[in-house]
TrEMBL record:
Species of provenance: Senna tora
Gene3D superfamilies: NAD(P)-binding Rossmann-like Domain
The protein's name: NAD-dependent epimerase/dehydratase family protein
Organism taxonomic ancestry: Eukaryota, Viridiplantae, Streptophyta, Embryophyta, Tracheophyta
Organism domain of life: Eukaryota
Cross-referenced PANTHER family: FLAVIN REDUCTASE-RELATED, OS06G0360300 PROTEIN
Pfam families (alphabetical): NAD_binding_10 (PF13460)
NAD(P)-binding domain residues: 70-266
InterPro entries tied to this protein: NAD(P)-bd_dom, NAD(P)-bd_dom_sf
Length: 298
C-alpha cells in the first residue's frame, strides 16, 4: 500500500509502528480399510485431522480445506504454508494463477489455486470458495497504485463480498487479517501518526473498520485479527494478545500473524472475537488456548 512504502522508507522513530516495519493469513471414512489418525495438534483442537489408508498414504479428500484470499501476499503465503504444514488442504484464492504458482510452493497435492478477485462480487467468490471449503481466511490488502478508491474496493467491499460469498455456500468460519488502530478515531487515536497516514491514502483503516462491522453483524463465526506493523523477519519475541482497541503501537512478524490465523481455526476460544496482536521480547510465552481464552466476546 502507498502508506506502507512511505513508512518503510522513513528513518524517524515517532511512529507507533517501528521503523523496520514493512507496511507493504472428515469426513466419514470412505472404506473400512481406512484408519483414522487424528492429528489433533494442540489442546482444544477443532478441525485438524488426517486420514491415511493402509499403505500409510494420506487420503486428501479427508483433509479440512481452507480457502485463503490474498494467498500471494506476504502474510497470505505464510498462512498457506502453515496450513499445509499442519495438515490442512488449501484452496488459494488468487488474482493471477501463474504468479501464484511462482510465489507458492508447487507440487503439494493438498494445494490448489483458484481465481478470486474480491472486487468481482460475491457470486464469483462463492463459486471459487465452492462447497468443499470449511473456513475462509482473508489476508487481502489493496496494492498501491493510482486508484485512490482501491482500499475501499478491496479492504471494505472486497471483504464484504467474501463474507457474502461464505453465506451463499454455507461456510461458517471466517478469519480476517485487519489492523490495530482501525477504530482509532473512536478511541482517542485521531492524531496518531499511523492512523492519519494510513487514512490519508484511501481511508484504509476506515475501510477495514467498515468490513469488520459487516462481519460482526453477519452471524458468521469470525475471528478478526488486528496485528501491529508487519515484519518479514522471523519472530523476535512472544505474541501479546489484547482485546479490541487496546494496542496503539508495536509490530509483529508475519510468521506469527499467520500462526495466530491458523491457530484460530483450532481453538473454539477464538470464535466471535476481535484480537489485537503485537510481539514483545519480554512477553511471557503463552499457549493459544490461554491467549484466545483471555479475550472476552463483545
Ligand atoms: N503492512 C503492515 O504493516 C500492516 C499492518 C497491519 C495490518 N496490515 C494488513 O495485513 C494484511 C496483510 O498485509 P500484507 O502486507 O501481508 O499484504 P500484501 O503483501 O500487501 O498482500 C496483499 C494481498 O492482497 C491481494 N489482493 C489485492 N487486491 C486484491 C483483489 N482485488 N482481489 C484479491 N486479492 C487481492 C494481493 O494479491 P496480488 O498478489 O494479486 O496483488 C496480495 O495477495 C492487509 O490487510 C494489510 O492491510 C498490514
Amino acid at each position: 500500500m502507498a502508506a506502507s512504502l512511505i513508512l518503510r522508507n522513513s528513518t524517524r522513530s515517532i511512529l507507533p509502528y517501528p521503523l523496520h516495519t514493512q507496511f507493504t493469513p472428515p469426513s466419514t471414512l470412505a472404506t473400512k480399510s481406512l484408519s483414522l489418525l487424528n492429528f489433533a495438534k494442540m489442546e482444544g483442537s477443532e478441525i485438524t485431522e488426517e486420514v491415511r489408508n493402509k499403505a500409510g498414504e494420506k487420503d486428501l479428500s479427508s483433509k479440512k480445506k481452507v480457502f485463503v484470499a490474498g494467498a500471494t501476499g506476504s502474510t497470505g503465503k505464510r498462512i498457506v504454508e502453515q496450513l499445509l504444514a499442519k495438515g490442512f488442504a488449501v484452496k488459494a484464492g488468487v488474482r493471477d494463477i501463474e504468479k501464484a504458482k511462482a510465489t507458492l510452493s508447487q507440487g503439494n497435492p493438498a494445494l490448489h489455486f483458484v481465481k478470486a478477485d474480491v472486487t468481482e462480487g460475491s457470486d464469483k467468490l462463492a463459486a471459487a470458495i465452492g462447497d468443499d471449503s470449511e473456513a475462509v481466511i482473508c489476508a487481502t490488502g489493496f496494492r498501491p497504485g493510482w486508484d485512490l478508491l482501491a482500499p475501499w474496493k478491496v479492504d471494505n467491499f472486497g471483504t464484504v463480498n467474501l463474507v457474502e460469498a461464505c453465506r451463499k455456500v454455507n461456510v461458517n468460519r471466517f478469519i480476517l487479517i485487519s489492523s490495530i488502530l482501525v477504530n482509532g478515531a473512536a478511541v482517542g487515536q485521531l492524531l496518531n501518526p499511523v492512523y492519519i497516514l494510513l487514512n490519508v491514502f484511501g481511508l484504509t483503516l476506515v475501510a477495514k473498520l467498515q468490513a469488520e462491522q459487516h462481519i460482526r453483524k453477519s452471524g458468521i463465526n469470525y475471528t478478526i485479527i488486528r496485528p501491529g506493523g508487519l515484519r518479514n523477519e522471523p519472530p523476535s519475541g512472544n505474541v501479546v494478545m489484547e482485546p479490541e482497541d487496546a494496542l496503539f503501537e508495536g509490530s509483529i512478524s508475519r510468521d506469527q500473524v499467520a500462526e495466530v490465523a491458523v491457530e484460530a481455526l483450532n481453538f473454539p476460544e477464538a470464535s466471535y472475537k476481535v484480537v489485537e496482536i503485537v510481539s514483545r521480547p519480554d512477553a511471557p510465552k503463552r499457549s493459544y488456548h490461554d491467549l484466545f481464552g483471555s479475550i472476552s466476546q463483545r
